[in-house]
């Protein structure tokens, strides 16, 4: 499972020492070892890509009002899936429009956004707490249950075809 934690904060230093981009939005990007920091001209900043909770001592600038914004998790289910069949099983709890977006969006878990790709990759966005293990396990179990039912039906169908020949 890949974890990506995003924070927002306010820079406590003067922004005159930064070379901001000339195009909008005027921002300065600082790539650090464990995260990327974007500083805007109004001193607000975003800290993205943290794989574990952020320590203020690891930030190269003085900041205030550090707030965790969201967590994004990526999980690989280990096999390809048929998104059309899963969408038909989930009915009104899923959105699948392959012409617009290549993933099945599972709407059972609002306000979190859960996207399932045909490759078997599952992306869960919008988690608001560092204590996310229980909800993530529930989401993965729900998705696996739907996939397993679809696989069992396929095996039954394949067995019927095989025996009737």
Key terms:
24% helix, 165 residues, alpha+beta, 2 domains
Summarize the structure.
By secondary structure, the protein is of the alpha+beta class. The protein has helices at 83-90, 133-163, and strands at 2-11, 27-31, 36-40, 44-50, 63-76, 94-95, 103-106, 113-117, 121-127. It has two helices and nine strands, in the order E-E-E-E-E-H-E-E-E-E-H.
Describe the protein:
By secondary structure, this protein is α+β, with helices and mostly antiparallel strands. The chain contains two helices and nine strands. The protein folds into two domains: 2-69, no CATH class; 77-163, TATA-Binding Protein, CATH 3.30.310.10. It has a nine-stranded antiparallel β-sheet, with helices on one face. It is elongated, with a radius of gyration of 21 Å.
């Amino acid at each position: 499972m890949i974890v990506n934690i995003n924070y927002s904060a306010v820079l406590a230093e003067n922004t005159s020492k930064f070379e901001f981009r000339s195009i909008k939005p005027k921002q300065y990007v600082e790539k650090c070892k464990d995260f990327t920091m974007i500083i805007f001209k109004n001193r607000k900043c975003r800290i993205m890509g943290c794989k574990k909770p952020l320590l203020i001592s690891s930030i190269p600038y003085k900041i205030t009002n550090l707030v965790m914004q969201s967590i994004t998790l990526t999980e690989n289910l280990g096999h390809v899936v048929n998104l059309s069949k899963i969408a038909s099983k989930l009915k009104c709890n899923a959105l699948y429009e392959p012409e617009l977006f290549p993933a099945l969006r599972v709407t059972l878990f609002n306000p979190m956004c859960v996207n399932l790709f045909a490759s078997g990759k599952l992306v869960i966005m919008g988690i608001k707490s560092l204590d996310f293990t229980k909800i993530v396990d529930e989401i993965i179990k729900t998705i696996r249950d739907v996939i397993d039912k679809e696989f069992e039906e396929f095996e039954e169908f394949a067995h019927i075809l095989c025996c009737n020949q």
